[in-house]
Amino acid sequence: MIIGEALKNKNILFFSVQTFDLEKEIVNKLEEFGANVHYYDERPANNNFTKGIIRLKRSFYQNIIDKYYRNILNSISKTVIFDFLFVNKGEVVPAFFLEEFKILQPDCEFILYTWDSFNNNKYATTILKYFNRKLTFDPEDAVKYKINFRPLFYLDAYKDVKNEVFEYDTLFLGTAHSDRYKISSEIGQWCAKNNLKIFCYYYMQGRLVYLYKRIFDKTFKQFDYRKLSFKSLKLDDIVNLYRKSKVILDINHPNQKGLTMRTFEAIGARRKLITTNKEIAKFPFYNPTNIYIIERDNVLLDKAFFKTDYQDIENNVYDKLSMEGWLYNIFIDAEESFWNKCL
């Protein structure tokens, strides 16, 4: 890929919500390619109150959002000529900022990528018109809004996961939401009956978030509080768990069609995958030897799936699913003809 040549010495203004340090990994990779990255959290703050109020009652927080972006405009308007404005998700950045930044930086290319569905982040649809390049991980949103489809990626760290003696037959890591606990518990019971070992890690953003969900989200009445963790795993922790595990369990949000980050981490680590997302069968890396699709309302498993080894996928597809491949599609070539085959 020629991404290093294309991004060398380019100035990028990058907005992204903080998500398990993925934003830092993106910045590091862009800088590795020689880009000069100016990163800002898309939210004025990263605490649970800010996250919640933006989603539930944005208007109460709008003055703080506007002030935050006004300060950013004042701090960057006279210092750097930007080649790219890259917004990852588009949950917060206000229209006035995009309009005024375009006046200040008329030659800057505006790029939006979202790793959330528009059903969960409707605000992003109101600012689509400001961007030259628009990409989404959600295949249905790509068709509906006529924007480029590009799934997620795996980090370089997963390339270093080697096959070892496995401690766990199945691994589930994820934020606690929807029917994840119900499905993973059913699979855990199946594993116990079949002499297979499962490890589950359910992350919750905070105790107040849990209490709120416990009251207003009926699915949380099933969660065993003792199994929740309020500390997010670091990248090294996740990679080490992948190293010890033969099969990764992926339970996507029932309202999302896009493939999760777990899917691509499993591919990057060359691990087998059990998933609730039927969309995966449309992708060029789908292989029933590696990927087992389950019904979320009727979980049926086959012990034979755990007895076979992972089969490598084609190198060119493996490369496309890396972070480097993801950035290539965002900044250089969306490769519509390749990815549209998955829609």
Give descriptors for this structure:
343 residues; alpha/beta; Rossmann fold; six-stranded parallel sheet
The major sheet is characterized as: 6 strands, parallel
Overall pLDDT score: 91
So what's the oligomer here? Answer: single chain
Structural class: alpha/beta
The helix/strand series, from N terminus to C terminus, equals HEHEHHEHEEHEEHEHEHEHEEHHHH
Number of helices: 14
Contiguous uncertain segments of 5+ residues? none
The CA-CA distance between the termini, in Å, is 24 Å
Compute the CA-based radius of gyration: 21 Å
Please characterize this protein's 3D structure:
By secondary structure, the protein is α/β, with parallel strands linked by helices. Helices cover 35% and strands 17% of the residues. Strands 2-1-3-4-5-6 form a six-stranded parallel beta sheet, sandwiched between helices. The chain is globular and about 65 Å long. It starts with a helix and ends with a helix.
